[in-house]
Specification:
Chain B: InterPro entries: Bact_Polyamine_Transport (IPR051789), MetI-like (IPR000515), MetI-like_sf (IPR035906). Chain B: It is found in: Cell membrane. The complex is a heterodimer. By secondary structure, chain A is mainly α. Helices cover 77% and strands 3% of the residues of chain A. Chain A has a two-stranded antiparallel ribbon. In chain A, helix 2 crosses helix 13, helix 3 packs across helix 8 and helix 4 runs antiparallel to helix 8. By secondary structure, chain B is mainly α. Chain B has a domain of 179 residues: MetI-like (MetI-like fold), CATH 1.10.3720.10. In chain B, helix 3 runs antiparallel to helix 8 and helix 7 runs antiparallel to helix 8. Classes of the chains: A mainly alpha, B mainly alpha. At the A-B interface, helix 1, helix 3, helix 4, helix 5 and helix 6 of A face helix 1, helix 3, helix 4, helix 5 and helix 6 of B.
Chain lengths: 287, 269
């Protein structure tokens, strides 16, 4: 049945309107509100006119805020790098060395831990790494010195985050590796390149879009993670999300909290754009 | 397939790293010691009994169940609208609208939670289980849309056209032809949204205003060393529940693809 473009457009809009209305009211409007609040004058529990850049100036003037933002960024970058590096060989193995009919089973196995309670996984790391915890007691049982990882808060935060977001990294890399034309690899080897050089010059560049996607998928939630610094870092190494929480809930300062949120979104946005540009450059003129 | 022993053992080691904390759950949930450390002491069911007797925990579990059932239902319904519209129709503003729906996937959850919190507090809506549901639906809907889009995509258009030609109305065609064929996708979406909501913490914590909700309750209990063993018992049950629900979801998803004659591209994500 032929539909005129106009009636098709109307039917589509009508169909999507409940969902669209929901996200506009409960996501777009709140995000816009945060943007507006961030440039308003804050008082305890309320915001008012005039419009001011005071909140951003405050953020700039106190070294501790800059330090926390910088630290969150660095932790997220280290976590992203470690997670992608650890995940690549796994994705490569599943794509190149697992029989096609077994691939979805392997992927399912890799994703299961992601689907089991985040809060419990993070809490468990707290029990594992903590003083006299599972790791140190196991080392003691075989006569080794305790490592006391938990006393290095940032290190334990990095370990836990790299664990929590690992499955996110494997999947996009796997998808891009699946798209690599296998005949290109044979061609590379027929032309006398070693397997390693073929990998470096053909497979790795072709899988870069997946690597970048993985990096973004790990980086973005890591910057905004709240639970891990609170639980594993014992609240001693606050990250951006903890800072926003303090401003909002403990100090009731909506304007300042909003400025933090906007600044962190900007930061995430800028880093993401850099990732994407790197990717463009990497794959060159190829479409 | 070429053999690659080194890569294979690395992958197995990686899986061990991924599953490590989860494997420890049942080990220490049945261990007869309040201190979670090696060496193991002996077998006990004490922690499970302690957990089951905890009235606050039951309350929290009940609230989480209410939230998860509501969130899964609402997200799946919203997902059906969005996925069907995106697969079947072209309309102005489609890109931006779908982008907005999928945005929570790439936005730190904390930002979603705080933006909603600021607005709710500003217009004076009291925080409750209801506000948690409102927030979690935003997080779950993108997953529902992703699953349902693939379900609607594998649908054969000619079946619908045949029904319309045979005199069915668009509505009855949807009910008699489309709905049964995408039913596996709908069930998979429901189960996955249920699992995500049940485990979700940040929104439950910020928009729940201290209501007992399971994830928030667990977060609090882990601070008291004496409570940890019974939390491990609870965790063991929850992991079991998640795996069962996901197994069922995966079964329906595959059946849906097979039914529509599609090819399995593997995995939910």
């Amino acid at each position: 049945m032929a539909q005129t473009p106009n009636s098709e457009a109307r039917a589509g809009l009508k169909l999507i309107s409940p969902t669209a209305l929901y996200v506009i009211l409960l996501l777009a409007v709140p995000l816009a509100t945060v943007l507006v609040y961030s440039v308003m004058t804050g008082a305890r529990g309320s915001v008012s006119l005039p419009i001011t850049a005071e909140n951003y100036a405050e953020l700039w003037s106190r070294p501790v805020y800059g330090y926390i933002m910088f630290k969150s960024l660095m932790v997220a970058l280290v976590v992203t790098f470690a997670t992608v590096l650890l995940a690549y060989p796994v994705a490569y193995f599943v794509s190149f060395h697992v029989k096609p009919e077994r691939k979805s089973l392997w992927l399912f196995l890799i994703t299961i831990p992601f689907w089991t309670s985040y809060i419990i996984r993070v809490s468990l790391w707290f029990v594992i790494l903590g003083f006299g915890g599972v790791l140190d007691s196991a080392l003691a049982a075989i006569g080794l010195e305790p490592l006391n990882v938990a006393s290095y808060s940032i290190l334990s935060i990095i370990i836990v985050l790299a664990h929590a977001y690992a499955p996110f990294a494997v999947l996009p890399i796997f998808v891009s590796l699946e798209k690599v034309d296998r005949s290109l690899l044979e061609a590379g080897q027929d032309l006398g390149e070693s397997r390693w050089v073929t990998f470096l010059r053909v497979t790795l560049p072709l899988s870069m879009p997946g690597v970048i996607a993985a990096a973004l998928i790990v980086f973005i939630p890591t910057v905004g993670d709240y639970v891990t610094p609170e639980l594993v870092g014992d609240g001693k190494e606050p990250m951006i999300a903890n800072l926003i929480e303090t401003q909002l809930l403990k100090l009731n300062n909506f304007a300042q909290g909003s400025a933090f949120a906007v600044a962190s979104m900007l930061m995430v946005g800028i880093v993401s754009v850099v990732f994407v540009l790197l990717n463009r450059r990497f794959i060159g003129g190829q479409k | 397939m070429k053999k690659a022993p080194l890569l294979r053992s690395y992958t197995l080691f990686y899986l061990l790293f991924l599953y490590g904390p989860i494997i420890l759950l049942p080990i220490f949930a049945f261990n007869d010691s309040r201190v979670v450390a090696f060496p193991l002491n002996g077998f006990t069911l004490q922690w499970f009994n302690e957990m089951l007797a905890d009235q606050n925990l039951r309350n929290a579990a009940k609230n989480s169940l209410i939230i998860a059932l509501s969130v899964a239902s609402i997200s799946t319904v919203l997902g059906i609208f969005a996925a069907r519209a995106s697969v079947r129709y072209r309309f102005p503003g489609k890109g931006p609208i779908l982008g907005m729906v999928m945005l929570p996937l790439v936005l730190p959850e904390m930002i979603v939670a705080m933006a909603l919190l600021v607005v709710l507090l500003s217009i004076g809506i009291p925080l409750s289980l209801f506000t948690v549901i409102l927030g979690q639906v935003l997080i779950c809907t993108p997953f529902a849309v992703a699953i349902l889009t693939s379900a609607f995509q594998s649908l054969d258009r000619s079946l619908e056209e045949a029904a319309l030609d045979l005199g069915e109305t668009p509505l009855s065609t949807f009910r008699l032809i489309v709905l049964p064929l995408v039913m596996p996708g709908i069930l998979a979406s429901f189960l996955i949204c249920f699992t995500i909501s049940f485990d979700e913490f940040i929104i439950a914590n910020f928009l729940g205003s201290g209501q007992p909700i399971l994830s928030v309750y667990i977060f609090g209990q882990f601070r008291f060393p004496a409570k940890v063993p019974s939390m491990l018992a609870l965790g063991t049950l929850l992991v079991l529940l998640s795996i069962i629900l996901l197994g069922i979801a995966e079964y329906f998803r595959r059946r849906g693809i097979a039914k529509a004659g599609g090819k399995d591209s593997g995995g939910f994500l």
